[in-house]
Each structure stands twice: as C-alpha cells, then as structure tokens.
Amino acid sequence: MMPRDLEGRILLEAGTVLVIDKPPGLPSTGRSLDDDDCLQHAVIQRAGGMVWAIHQLDADTSGVNVFTTERRHVAALKGALSAPSARKHYLAMVHGCPPWETRIVTDPIGMVDGTSLGVTAHGRSAHTEFEVLDRGPEHSLLRVRILTGRTHQIRIHAAHLGHPLVGEEWYRSPPCAAHPRQALHASRLALEGDLRLDVAAPIPDDLRELANGLGLCLDRATPY
C-alpha cells in the first residue's frame, strides 16, 4: 500500500493517534520495519517517521486499526485497549444458525498439538461475547465483542461453538472456500482514559456482497 492510498482510509487523526480502516489482505505489521507488505510501513512513510501499532489484526480482517507516532503513548493506549471498559466490536458471518441469541465463551486458547492454536485447558484465558443479528437459510450474522486479545480468538471460539466463519481455512474441516477471506470486520473500537477514542469503520463492499449472497440483512449491523 502506498501512503497516498491511506488518505481515504483514515478514520481519525488526533494528535499522535492515527486510526486506519485496514483493508483485508494486508497485515497490520510486517517482519521488519522495511517490510512494505504491511499497513505499518505505509503509515510510517506517510508520517515521515516511526509509527507504532497499538494492536494487530489478522491479515484478512478488515477494520479499525490504531497507531501512534509517539512511543510514550504506546503503553497507555495498550492499557486502555486491554481494560474491561474497552469496547472492541466485530462483525462476523458464520456457518449455521445458532439456537441462542447471545453466548459468552470463556474457554482458554493455546497450542493444541505443538503447531496449531485452539481451545485447550492449558491455554490462556479468553473471553468472547457473541450476539446474533440476523439468520439466513444456512448462515448467520453476528456481532462479537472481545474482552481479551488472543491470536485468532474470534475464529477459534466461533469454530468451538460449531459456527466457524465463512471463508475460514484453518479452523474448519474442510476449509471454507465460499469467500476469499474470513468474513470478519473490526467495526468499532472505543477506549477510555487519557487517550480516549471512539471510532467505527464502515462495512467493506466485499462483506456487503457476501451478506447479500447469503441472505443476511445488515440493517442491525451498526457499530453502536
């Protein structure tokens, strides 16, 4: 991504904080600061100096991604992100139609066979809250809130419930080829504290088209 391509994806620029609507297919950060195949590199080029990523989104996950140009603000922003008051909301499209309206999953996440992540009693604590927004013939639209930030947390917990994400390759057998990426979008992030913010990212076109094809209505998929 070129720095000029960022301008239309900036959700908030306030002081040292920059919030980007991350496109799918691009990691938040790369293997090094010179890795141009990541969002951080484009933000650094635009800023003309070092920029720190406050949190990571999977490469295929779109939506709210926070950066700062001041290292002294990293700890405060990460602390606000991990606080119980943080509102980290996602939209997900999953296989199947859950019989419940809301569900809280607190199963720990960790390595299950030395190479793969999953639910395991020896994993780290994880807390995910699911809410059904709409049901189609064979799929459902969920609003998801995470209170922890484990790698692939939503993908793992959704699959653990028996409702893996549409487009899921790792946590569904057989892998889902119905969409070229996991149908997951970071729709809203609200943080409290000295560096408070409340930002929402619009639903991307590919997920709108997917919802239409799956018979799902996005009317309730507002971030607030």
Summed up:
With 224 residues, the protein is α+β, with helices and mostly antiparallel strands. It has helices at 39-47, 74-82, 153-160, 205-214; strands spanning 10-14, 17-22, 52-53, 62-68, 87-95, 102-105, 109-111, 117-119, 128-135, 139-146, 184-191, 197-200. The protein has one domain: Pseudouridine synthase.
Structure description:
This protein is α+β, with helices and mostly antiparallel strands and 224 residues long. It has a single domain (3-212), classed as 2-Layer Sandwich (Pseudouridine synthase), CATH 3.30.2350.10. It has 4 helices and 12 strands. The protein has helices at 39-47, 74-82, 153-160, 205-214; strands at residues 10-14, 17-22, 52-53, 62-68, 87-95, 102-105, 109-111, 117-119, 128-135, 139-146, 184-191, 197-200. The strands form 2 sheets. Strands 1, 2, 3, 4, 5, 6, 9, 10, 11 and 12 form a 10-stranded mixed β-sheet that branches. A two-stranded antiparallel sheet has the order 7-8. A hairpin with a 5-residue loop joins strand 11 (184-191) and strand 12. The longest helix has 10 residues, at 205-214. The chain is globular.
